[in-house]
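User:
Note these tokens:
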Amino acid sequence: MNGNSVGIVKPQDFTFGITEDDLLPLDCGKKLGPVNIRFETYGELNAERSNAILILHALSGDAHVAGYHSEDDGKAGWWDDMVGPGKPFDTLKYFVVCSNVIGGCSGSTGPSSINPATGQRYSLSFPVITIGDMVRAQHRLMKHLGIERWLSLAGGSMGGMQALQWAVDYPEAVGSVMAIATTARISPQGIAFDWVGREAIKNDPAWDGGNYRDAIPEKGLSTARMLAHITYLSDESMLNKFGRKLQSSDHYSYDFDYDFSVESYLQYQGRRFVERFDANSYLYITRAIDYFDLSDRGNGDLAAAFRNVSCPFLVVSFTSDWLFPPYQSQQLVEALAENHVKVSSCVIESSYGHDAFLLEYATLGKMVADFAVNVYKKVTHG
């Protein structure tokens, strides 16, 4: 555990929607309750409650953004390089919050949760959710924490989608937005990758129409993860990391087991994912990503979606990100500029692909730190 780690953190839970008038309304027309939100906090909320930053996670992330869960925990939070004392999200200065999205499988209510009406898992009876629904639940958490306005919202990939949704749905509650490696509307290519991943899960015999219990659809979920993981990398990063190296021999096996290092790597990623993620949650969250299109607010006009938004934005993309390529960030910048919103934008040179937002912490970290400090100074000094 390094000296500028937040140290040991304890997950917390917030439950709402226990009574009929407190249920969470969903975009599909249904209502959900009770709803549990698993979250973690880092740093201290100041007396003015003006230093709170909400970090929003990507598809396979969770609330554990920094620190460790125990003394012998060998794995830090997913953005530990960015969150902690003296780090870009400086916990000596800011009160940082991260929560697991609804539909997830890391403590928040999702398809693997127990439906109180039946005493059984929701499975596919869980209602289809959207990015907007995730944000609506986070807004309830915000009120629970006694925060009226976030100093900033920050997220990469699906986390960036949530940050954008927050700015559109609750502009009065958002002081600034850091939208990183993200998009205001997912492309047909992105939808296609999500579809193939879901089909891999649904065609696994163990999936059993979503009603699996003891035998889980390991092969389907592993395949979905392998496919998605390819989209997170780039041709250059894969060439640099693997080339055409063979895994355990100096000649081809002439069968259909893995020969190449990249094949072995993907199998490893698939196995690891199965150990920590729920197959049905993968269906629900990828569908929420598919449905995300802020331009629907303006009948296809993206600029119209930001008509009521006035807070400053930092928009960051990466040259080798072919899942959410830089042109999508540029579309976002242009839509904000059309509404005279102050936008700082940058395309970072990187070979890491979409995963660059998790790896280019030196360059990205400086941008984030400077942006957050400038916003904080305006809040505290006017």
Remarks:
- The radius of gyration is 21 Å.
